[in-house]
Protein backbone atom coordinates (compact mmCIF):
# COMPACT_ATOMS: atom_id res chain seq x y z
CA UNK A 1 0.00 0.00 0.00
CA UNK A 2 1.47 3.35 -1.05
CA UNK A 3 2.03 5.91 1.70
CA UNK A 4 0.32 8.55 -0.43
CA UNK A 5 -2.76 6.35 -0.77
CA UNK A 6 -5.96 7.48 0.93
CA UNK A 7 -6.40 3.91 2.19
CA UNK A 8 -2.99 4.10 3.88
CA UNK A 9 -3.91 7.45 5.43
CA UNK A 10 -7.21 6.13 6.79
CA UNK A 11 -5.53 2.98 8.13
CA UNK A 12 -2.87 5.10 9.82
CA UNK A 13 -5.49 7.38 11.40
CA UNK A 14 -7.50 4.46 12.78
CA UNK A 15 -4.36 2.70 14.04
CA UNK A 16 -3.34 5.94 15.74
CA UNK A 17 -6.82 6.26 17.26
CA UNK A 18 -6.79 2.71 18.65
CA UNK A 19 -3.28 3.25 20.05
CA UNK A 20 -4.38 6.51 21.69
CA UNK A 21 -7.45 4.82 23.19
CA UNK A 22 -5.29 1.95 24.47
CA UNK A 23 -2.85 4.34 26.14
CA UNK A 24 -5.74 6.34 27.61
CA UNK A 25 -7.22 3.18 29.11
CA UNK A 26 -3.85 2.20 30.56
CA UNK A 27 -3.65 5.60 32.23
CA UNK A 28 -7.27 5.34 33.40
CA UNK A 29 -6.59 1.85 34.76
CA UNK A 30 -3.62 3.05 36.78
CA UNK A 31 -5.44 6.15 38.01
CA UNK A 32 -8.57 4.22 39.01
CA UNK A 33 -6.50 1.56 40.77
CA UNK A 34 -4.72 4.24 42.80
CA UNK A 35 -8.06 5.75 43.82
CA UNK A 36 -9.34 2.31 44.79
CA UNK A 37 -6.23 1.69 46.92
CA UNK A 38 -6.57 5.08 48.64
CA UNK A 39 -10.23 4.44 49.49
CA UNK A 40 -9.40 0.98 50.83
CA UNK A 41 -6.54 2.31 52.96
CA UNK A 42 -8.74 5.09 54.36
CA UNK A 43 -11.41 2.57 55.32
CA UNK A 44 -8.98 0.19 57.03
CA UNK A 45 -7.16 3.06 58.70
CA UNK A 46 -10.38 4.18 60.44
CA UNK A 47 -11.23 0.62 61.52
CA UNK A 48 -7.70 -0.04 62.82
CA UNK A 49 -7.67 3.25 64.73
CA UNK A 50 -11.03 2.51 66.38
CA UNK A 51 -9.89 -0.98 67.44
CA UNK A 52 -6.54 0.19 68.77
CA UNK A 53 -8.21 3.00 70.74
CA UNK A 54 -10.71 0.51 72.15
CA UNK A 55 -8.00 -2.05 73.09
CA UNK A 56 -5.88 0.65 74.74
CA UNK A 57 -8.85 2.01 76.71
CA UNK A 58 -8.96 5.34 74.90
CA UNK A 59 -12.46 4.66 73.51
CA UNK A 60 -15.46 3.27 75.39
CA UNK A 61 -17.48 0.34 74.12
CA UNK A 62 -20.44 2.44 73.02
CA UNK A 63 -18.34 4.63 70.72
CA UNK A 64 -16.48 1.57 69.48
CA UNK A 65 -19.72 -0.16 68.45
CA UNK A 66 -20.91 3.02 66.81
CA UNK A 67 -17.67 3.25 64.78
CA UNK A 68 -17.81 -0.45 63.77
CA UNK A 69 -21.49 -0.31 62.82
CA UNK A 70 -20.57 1.53 59.67
CA UNK A 71 -18.51 -1.40 58.32
CA UNK A 72 -19.20 -5.11 57.91
CA UNK A 73 -15.98 -6.54 59.34
CA UNK A 74 -16.67 -9.31 61.89
CA UNK A 75 -13.85 -10.72 63.99
CA UNK A 76 -12.44 -14.16 63.13
CA UNK A 77 -12.65 -16.08 66.42
CA UNK A 78 -11.85 -19.61 65.24
CA UNK A 79 -8.27 -20.16 66.44
CA UNK A 80 -7.41 -22.62 63.66
CA UNK A 81 -8.63 -20.33 60.90
CA UNK A 82 -6.97 -17.39 62.62
CA UNK A 83 -3.61 -19.18 62.74
CA UNK A 84 -3.92 -20.22 59.10
CA UNK A 85 -4.54 -16.64 58.04
CA UNK A 86 -1.64 -15.32 60.07
CA UNK A 87 0.72 -17.94 58.62
CA UNK A 88 -0.38 -18.03 55.00
CA UNK A 89 -1.84 -14.62 54.20
CA UNK A 90 -0.02 -12.08 52.03
CA UNK A 91 0.79 -8.82 53.80
CA UNK A 92 -0.26 -5.93 51.53
CA UNK A 93 0.54 -3.07 53.89
CA UNK A 94 1.56 -2.74 57.57
CA UNK A 95 1.48 0.32 59.85
CA UNK A 96 2.94 0.63 63.34
CA UNK A 97 2.05 3.16 66.03
CA UNK A 98 2.76 3.78 69.73
CA UNK A 99 -0.40 2.02 70.82
CA UNK A 100 -0.07 -0.91 68.41
CA UNK A 101 0.11 -1.94 64.78
CA UNK A 102 -2.19 -2.91 61.94
CA UNK A 103 -1.71 -4.82 58.71
CA UNK A 104 -3.83 -5.50 55.63
CA UNK A 105 -3.74 -9.21 54.69
CA UNK A 106 -4.89 -10.98 51.51
CA UNK A 107 -5.96 -14.59 51.87
CA UNK A 108 -8.18 -16.76 49.69
CA UNK A 109 -9.43 -13.76 47.67
CA UNK A 110 -10.52 -11.88 50.80
CA UNK A 111 -9.02 -8.97 52.67
CA UNK A 112 -8.35 -9.25 56.40
CA UNK A 113 -7.28 -6.59 58.85
CA UNK A 114 -4.79 -7.67 61.51
CA UNK A 115 -4.76 -5.49 64.65
CA UNK A 116 -2.16 -6.02 67.39
CA UNK A 117 -2.07 -4.28 70.77
CA UNK A 118 0.63 -5.57 73.12
CA UNK A 119 -0.13 -9.32 73.17
CA UNK A 120 -3.66 -9.09 71.84
CA UNK A 121 -4.15 -9.91 68.14
CA UNK A 122 -7.49 -9.44 66.36
CA UNK A 123 -8.29 -10.57 62.81
CA UNK A 124 -11.20 -8.81 61.12
CA UNK A 125 -12.66 -10.13 57.86
CA UNK A 126 -13.86 -7.56 55.31
CA UNK A 127 -17.14 -8.95 53.99
CA UNK A 128 -17.74 -5.89 51.78
CA UNK A 129 -14.39 -6.30 50.03
CA UNK A 130 -14.49 -6.78 46.27
CA UNK A 131 -11.25 -7.28 44.33
CA UNK A 132 -10.34 -4.58 41.84
CA UNK A 133 -12.45 -5.15 38.73
CA UNK A 134 -9.99 -5.33 35.86
CA UNK A 135 -12.60 -7.06 33.73
CA UNK A 136 -14.84 -3.99 33.64
CA UNK A 137 -12.06 -1.79 32.31
CA UNK A 138 -11.02 -4.46 29.80
CA UNK A 139 -14.60 -4.86 28.63
CA UNK A 140 -15.02 -1.11 28.08
CA UNK A 141 -11.75 -0.97 26.15
CA UNK A 142 -12.78 -3.98 24.03
CA UNK A 143 -16.13 -2.33 23.20
CA UNK A 144 -14.44 0.92 22.15
CA UNK A 145 -11.83 -0.99 20.09
CA UNK A 146 -14.53 -3.02 18.34
CA UNK A 147 -16.49 0.15 17.56
CA UNK A 148 -13.38 1.75 16.04
CA UNK A 149 -12.61 -1.41 14.06
CA UNK A 150 -16.16 -1.57 12.71
CA UNK A 151 -15.95 2.13 11.80
CA UNK A 152 -12.66 1.47 9.97
CA UNK A 153 -14.14 -1.49 8.06
CA UNK A 154 -17.20 0.57 7.15
CA UNK A 155 -15.10 3.49 5.86
CA UNK A 156 -12.83 1.17 3.82
CA UNK A 157 -15.89 -0.59 2.43
CA UNK A 158 -17.42 2.73 1.36
CA UNK A 159 -14.15 3.79 -0.28
CA UNK A 160 -13.50 0.43 -1.94
CA UNK A 161 -15.31 1.48 -5.16
CA UNK A 162 -12.53 4.07 -5.61
CA UNK A 163 -10.10 1.27 -6.47
CA UNK A 164 -12.51 -0.18 -9.01
CA UNK A 165 -13.03 3.30 -10.47
CA UNK A 166 -9.26 3.81 -10.65
CA UNK A 167 -8.85 0.58 -12.66
CA UNK A 168 -11.52 1.77 -15.10
CA UNK A 169 -9.80 5.17 -15.44
CA UNK A 170 -6.50 3.39 -16.20
CA UNK A 171 -8.26 1.37 -18.91
CA UNK A 172 -9.70 4.60 -20.31
CA UNK A 173 -6.27 6.26 -20.26
CA UNK A 174 -4.80 3.28 -22.14
CA UNK A 175 -7.49 3.55 -24.81
CA UNK A 176 -9.41 0.41 -23.80
CA UNK A 177 -12.85 2.01 -24.02
CA UNK A 178 -14.54 -1.32 -24.67
CA UNK A 179 -13.13 -2.74 -21.43
CA UNK A 180 -14.52 0.06 -19.22
CA UNK A 181 -17.46 -1.12 -17.08
CA UNK A 182 -19.85 0.66 -14.77
CA UNK A 183 -18.60 0.31 -11.16
CA UNK A 184 -21.47 2.27 -9.62
CA UNK A 185 -23.06 0.23 -6.82
CA UNK A 186 -25.11 2.65 -4.74
CA UNK A 187 -26.35 6.19 -4.32
CA UNK A 188 -23.38 7.77 -2.56
CA UNK A 189 -21.03 10.38 -4.06
CA UNK A 190 -18.45 7.84 -5.24
CA UNK A 191 -21.13 5.86 -7.07
CA UNK A 192 -22.41 9.07 -8.64
CA UNK A 193 -18.88 9.90 -9.86
CA UNK A 194 -18.49 6.35 -11.24
CA UNK A 195 -21.84 6.62 -13.01
CA UNK A 196 -20.97 10.01 -14.52
CA UNK A 197 -17.55 8.69 -15.64
CA UNK A 198 -19.10 5.65 -17.29
CA UNK A 199 -21.66 7.80 -19.12
CA UNK A 200 -18.84 10.08 -20.34
CA UNK A 201 -16.91 7.03 -21.59
CA UNK A 202 -19.98 5.80 -23.45
CA UNK A 203 -20.37 9.19 -25.13
CA UNK A 204 -16.69 9.30 -26.08
CA UNK A 205 -16.89 5.74 -27.42
CA UNK A 206 -19.94 6.68 -29.49
CA UNK A 207 -18.12 9.73 -30.87
CA UNK A 208 -15.00 7.66 -31.66
CA UNK A 209 -17.04 5.00 -33.41
CA UNK A 210 -18.80 7.70 -35.43
CA UNK A 211 -15.47 9.32 -36.33
CA UNK A 212 -13.92 6.00 -37.38
CA UNK A 213 -16.96 5.12 -39.47
CA UNK A 214 -17.00 8.56 -41.07
CA UNK A 215 -13.29 8.47 -41.97
CA UNK A 216 -13.49 4.95 -43.35
CA UNK A 217 -16.55 5.78 -45.43
CA UNK A 218 -14.91 8.95 -46.74
CA UNK A 219 -11.73 7.06 -47.68
CA UNK A 220 -13.73 4.27 -49.28
CA UNK A 221 -15.89 6.65 -51.29
CA UNK A 222 -12.89 8.72 -52.42
CA UNK A 223 -10.80 5.79 -53.62
CA UNK A 224 -13.20 4.87 -56.40
CA UNK A 225 -13.30 8.27 -58.16
CA UNK A 226 -9.56 8.76 -57.61
CA UNK A 227 -8.81 5.39 -59.23
CA UNK A 228 -11.14 6.14 -62.13
CA UNK A 229 -9.68 9.62 -62.53
CA UNK A 230 -6.15 8.24 -62.58
CA UNK A 231 -7.07 5.67 -65.22
CA UNK A 232 -8.59 8.38 -67.38
CA UNK A 233 -5.53 10.60 -66.85
CA UNK A 234 -3.20 7.78 -67.93
CA UNK A 235 -5.22 7.38 -71.15
CA UNK A 236 -4.61 11.00 -72.07
CA UNK A 237 -1.90 11.99 -74.51
CA UNK A 238 1.41 12.80 -72.92
CA UNK A 239 1.67 16.44 -72.00
CA UNK A 240 1.62 18.95 -69.23
CA UNK A 241 -2.06 18.42 -68.41
CA UNK A 242 -1.55 14.67 -68.05
CA UNK A 243 1.41 15.16 -65.72
CA UNK A 244 -0.55 17.57 -63.55
CA UNK A 245 -3.58 15.31 -63.35
CA UNK A 246 -1.47 12.23 -62.51
CA UNK A 247 0.36 14.29 -59.88
CA UNK A 248 -2.94 15.45 -58.35
CA UNK A 249 -4.37 11.93 -58.21
CA UNK A 250 -1.12 10.59 -56.75
CA UNK A 251 -1.27 13.26 -54.05
CA UNK A 252 -4.89 12.45 -53.30
CA UNK A 253 -4.10 8.73 -53.04
CA UNK A 254 -1.12 9.47 -50.81
CA UNK A 255 -3.30 11.68 -48.60
CA UNK A 256 -5.90 8.92 -48.19
CA UNK A 257 -3.19 6.43 -47.23
CA UNK A 258 -1.77 8.86 -44.68
CA UNK A 259 -5.22 9.57 -43.26
CA UNK A 260 -5.70 5.80 -42.83
CA UNK A 261 -2.41 5.59 -40.92
CA UNK A 262 -3.42 8.57 -38.76
CA UNK A 263 -6.80 7.02 -38.01
CA UNK A 264 -5.17 3.79 -36.86
CA UNK A 265 -2.37 5.30 -34.77
CA UNK A 266 -4.34 8.10 -33.08
CA UNK A 267 -7.43 6.08 -32.16
CA UNK A 268 -5.67 5.04 -28.91
CA UNK A 269 -6.56 1.41 -29.56
CA UNK A 270 -3.91 -1.19 -28.83
CA UNK A 271 -2.25 -2.64 -31.92
CA UNK A 272 -3.71 -6.11 -32.47
CA UNK A 273 -1.92 -7.19 -35.65
CA UNK A 274 1.63 -7.31 -34.33
CA UNK A 275 3.89 -9.96 -35.81
CA UNK A 276 7.56 -10.90 -35.63
CA UNK A 277 9.25 -9.54 -38.75
CA UNK A 278 12.82 -9.42 -40.01
CA UNK A 279 14.21 -5.91 -40.34
CA UNK A 280 15.20 -6.68 -43.96
CA UNK A 281 11.56 -7.40 -44.87
CA UNK A 282 10.41 -4.17 -43.23
CA UNK A 283 13.04 -2.15 -45.12
CA UNK A 284 12.15 -3.77 -48.44
CA UNK A 285 8.46 -3.01 -47.91
CA UNK A 286 9.23 0.61 -46.97
CA UNK A 287 11.35 1.13 -50.09
CA UNK A 288 8.66 -0.42 -52.30
CA UNK A 289 6.02 1.84 -50.71
CA UNK A 290 8.23 4.90 -51.29
CA UNK A 291 8.58 3.89 -54.99
CA UNK A 292 12.22 4.94 -55.15
CA UNK A 293 15.39 3.53 -56.61
CA UNK A 294 17.62 1.42 -54.37
CA UNK A 295 20.52 3.71 -55.15
CA UNK A 296 18.75 6.54 -53.30
CA UNK A 297 19.05 4.66 -49.98
CA UNK A 298 21.93 2.94 -48.21
CA UNK A 299 21.25 0.55 -45.32
CA UNK A 300 24.07 -0.07 -42.83
CA UNK A 301 22.81 -2.96 -40.74
CA UNK A 302 25.15 -3.49 -37.78
CA UNK A 303 23.08 -6.38 -36.41
CA UNK A 304 20.51 -8.78 -37.84
CA UNK A 305 17.37 -8.29 -35.75
CA UNK A 306 13.71 -9.30 -35.64
CA UNK A 307 11.03 -6.88 -34.50
CA UNK A 308 7.55 -7.45 -33.09
CA UNK A 309 5.60 -4.75 -34.91
CA UNK A 310 2.50 -4.01 -36.92
CA UNK A 311 4.22 -4.66 -40.27
CA UNK A 312 2.33 -2.22 -42.50
CA UNK A 313 2.37 0.63 -39.99
CA UNK A 314 6.05 0.30 -39.11
CA UNK A 315 6.93 0.09 -42.80
CA UNK A 316 4.92 3.27 -43.32
CA UNK A 317 6.94 5.05 -40.62
CA UNK A 318 10.23 4.09 -42.31
CA UNK A 319 8.80 5.02 -45.72
CA UNK A 320 7.87 8.47 -44.42
CA UNK A 321 11.37 9.01 -43.07
CA UNK A 322 12.84 8.03 -46.43
CA UNK A 323 10.42 10.39 -48.21
CA UNK A 324 11.31 13.16 -45.75
CA UNK A 325 15.05 12.70 -46.37
CA UNK A 326 14.68 12.67 -50.16
CA UNK A 327 12.43 15.74 -50.17
CA UNK A 328 14.50 17.93 -47.86
CA UNK A 329 18.01 16.46 -48.00
CA UNK A 330 20.71 18.39 -49.88
CA UNK A 331 21.89 15.30 -51.83
CA UNK A 332 18.47 13.56 -52.15
CA UNK A 333 20.05 10.57 -50.46
CA UNK A 334 19.25 8.78 -47.18
CA UNK A 335 21.68 6.73 -45.12
CA UNK A 336 19.97 4.31 -42.70
CA UNK A 337 21.98 2.89 -39.78
CA UNK A 338 20.49 -0.01 -37.76
CA UNK A 339 21.75 -1.24 -34.40
CA UNK A 340 20.19 -2.82 -31.30
CA UNK A 341 19.38 0.53 -29.70
CA UNK A 342 17.90 2.54 -32.56
CA UNK A 343 17.43 3.17 -36.28
CA UNK A 344 19.01 6.36 -37.62
CA UNK A 345 18.03 8.21 -40.82
CA UNK A 346 20.92 10.46 -41.85
CA UNK A 347 20.80 13.13 -44.54
CA UNK A 348 22.92 16.12 -45.45
CA UNK A 349 21.37 19.55 -45.15
CA UNK A 350 20.62 22.56 -43.01
CA UNK A 351 19.35 22.06 -39.45
CA UNK A 352 15.66 22.34 -38.67
CA UNK A 353 14.35 25.85 -38.08
CA UNK A 354 12.32 24.71 -35.07
CA UNK A 355 12.45 21.92 -32.48
CA UNK A 356 11.23 18.45 -33.42
CA UNK A 357 8.07 18.95 -31.32
CA UNK A 358 7.00 21.62 -33.79
CA UNK A 359 7.28 19.33 -36.81
CA UNK A 360 5.47 16.32 -35.31
CA UNK A 361 2.25 18.32 -35.16
CA UNK A 362 -0.23 17.62 -37.97
CA UNK A 363 -0.11 19.73 -41.14
CA UNK A 364 3.19 21.39 -40.23
CA UNK A 365 5.35 21.66 -43.36
CA UNK A 366 9.01 22.27 -43.97
CA UNK A 367 10.48 24.69 -46.44
CA UNK A 368 9.32 22.80 -49.52
CA UNK A 369 5.59 23.13 -48.90
CA UNK A 370 4.60 21.82 -52.34
CA UNK A 371 5.98 18.33 -51.70
CA UNK A 372 4.00 17.23 -48.63
CA UNK A 373 0.81 17.57 -46.61
CA UNK A 374 2.71 18.15 -43.39
CA UNK A 375 1.64 14.77 -41.99
CA UNK A 376 4.79 12.68 -42.43
CA UNK A 377 6.55 13.22 -39.10
CA UNK A 378 3.22 13.40 -37.28
CA UNK A 379 2.34 9.92 -38.53
CA UNK A 380 5.84 8.60 -37.75
CA UNK A 381 5.66 9.92 -34.19
CA UNK A 382 2.27 8.33 -33.58
CA UNK A 383 3.33 4.97 -35.04
CA UNK A 384 6.42 4.91 -32.84
CA UNK A 385 4.41 5.89 -29.75
CA UNK A 386 1.97 3.06 -30.47
CA UNK A 387 4.96 0.66 -30.46
CA UNK A 388 6.45 2.09 -27.24
CA UNK A 389 9.20 3.98 -29.08
CA UNK A 390 10.12 7.63 -29.56
CA UNK A 391 11.21 9.83 -32.45
CA UNK A 392 14.25 12.01 -31.69
CA UNK A 393 16.41 14.43 -33.71
CA UNK A 394 19.95 15.75 -33.60
CA UNK A 395 22.19 17.75 -35.93
CA UNK A 396 25.92 16.96 -36.21
CA UNK A 397 28.58 18.01 -38.72
CA UNK A 398 26.11 19.16 -41.35
CA UNK A 399 23.95 16.03 -40.99
CA UNK A 400 20.30 15.82 -39.99
CA UNK A 401 19.84 12.66 -37.92
CA UNK A 402 16.36 11.37 -37.13
CA UNK A 403 16.34 8.50 -34.62
CA UNK A 404 13.83 5.72 -33.89
CA UNK A 405 14.84 5.34 -30.23
CA UNK A 406 14.11 2.56 -27.71
CA UNK A 407 14.30 -0.12 -30.40
CA UNK A 408 14.97 -2.81 -27.78
CA UNK A 409 11.31 -2.43 -26.71
CA UNK A 410 10.25 -4.34 -29.86
CA UNK A 411 13.29 -6.52 -30.55
CA UNK A 412 12.64 -10.25 -30.20
CA UNK A 413 15.01 -13.21 -30.18
Task: Describe it.
This protein is an alpha+beta fold and 413 residues long. Helix content is 54%, strand content 17%. It is built from ten helices and twelve strands. The protein has helices spanning 6-55, 61-68, 79-88, 134-173, 189-234, 240-265, 279-290, 311-328, 356-359, 376-386, and strands at 90-97, 100-107, 110-117, 120-125, 275-278, 297-301, 306-309, 334-338, 343-348, 390-396, 399-405, 411-412. It has a five-stranded mixed sheet with strand order 6-8-9-11-10. A hairpin with a 2-residue loop joins strand 10 and strand 11. Helix 1 (6-55) packs antiparallel against helix 4, helix 5 (189-234) packs antiparallel against helix 6 and helix 7 (279-290) crosses helix 8 (311-328). The longest helix has 50 residues, at 6-55. The relative contact order is 0.06.
Count of DSSP helices? 10
* Overall helicity: 40-55%
Q: Could you tell me the strand content as a percent range?
A: 15-25%
What's the pLDDT, averaged over the residues? 81
How many beta strands in the DSSP annotation?
A: 12
User: What is the 3D shape?
Assistant: rod-shaped
- State the strand order across the main sheet: 6-8-9-11-10
Structural class: alpha+beta
**SSE series:** HHHEEEEHHHEHEEHEEHHEEE
How is the main sheet built?
5 strands, mixed
Radius of gyration: 47 Å
Report how far the terminal alpha carbons are from each other: 36 Å
Give start-end ranges of low-pLDDT stretches. none
Amino acid sequence: MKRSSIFFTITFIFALAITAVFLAFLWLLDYDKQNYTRELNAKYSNVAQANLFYLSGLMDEEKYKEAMSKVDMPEVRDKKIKDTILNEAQILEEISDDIGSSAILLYNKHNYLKIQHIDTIKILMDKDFQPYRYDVIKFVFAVVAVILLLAYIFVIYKLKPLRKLKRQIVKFANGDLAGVVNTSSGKDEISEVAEAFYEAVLQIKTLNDSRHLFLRNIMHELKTPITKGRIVAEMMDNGRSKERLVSVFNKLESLINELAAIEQTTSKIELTNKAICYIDDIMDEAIDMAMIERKDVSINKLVDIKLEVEFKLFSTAIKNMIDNGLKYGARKYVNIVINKENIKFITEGEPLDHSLDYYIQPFIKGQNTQKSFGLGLYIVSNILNAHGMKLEYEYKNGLNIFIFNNLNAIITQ
